[in-house]
User: What shape does this take?
Amino acid sequence: MKAEIQLALIALSINAGLAGADGKTAKDTRTPAQRSSLLWLSAQLVHKHMIKRVRGHNEVSSKACPSFDARKDELGRLV
Ligand SMILES: [Zn+2]
Assistant: This one.
């Protein structure tokens, strides 16, 4: 018997993405450590679960997060 699992979504979140005097303006504020950690974890998940697309929340919803365009980021080049 062959089991097949299809995942619809894996969501990752980091504590970054807001700046400005009000602290509420969307801006890519990831530290180098956050960038490399997020890229490493995403690559592991892409490989393990044969993920076909990496998207930002802002591509599928009217949200500002993750405050950068995942398609133009190194995350978007994982697949
Ligand atoms: Zn979000």
The mean pLDDT is 90. Residues 36-79 form one domain.
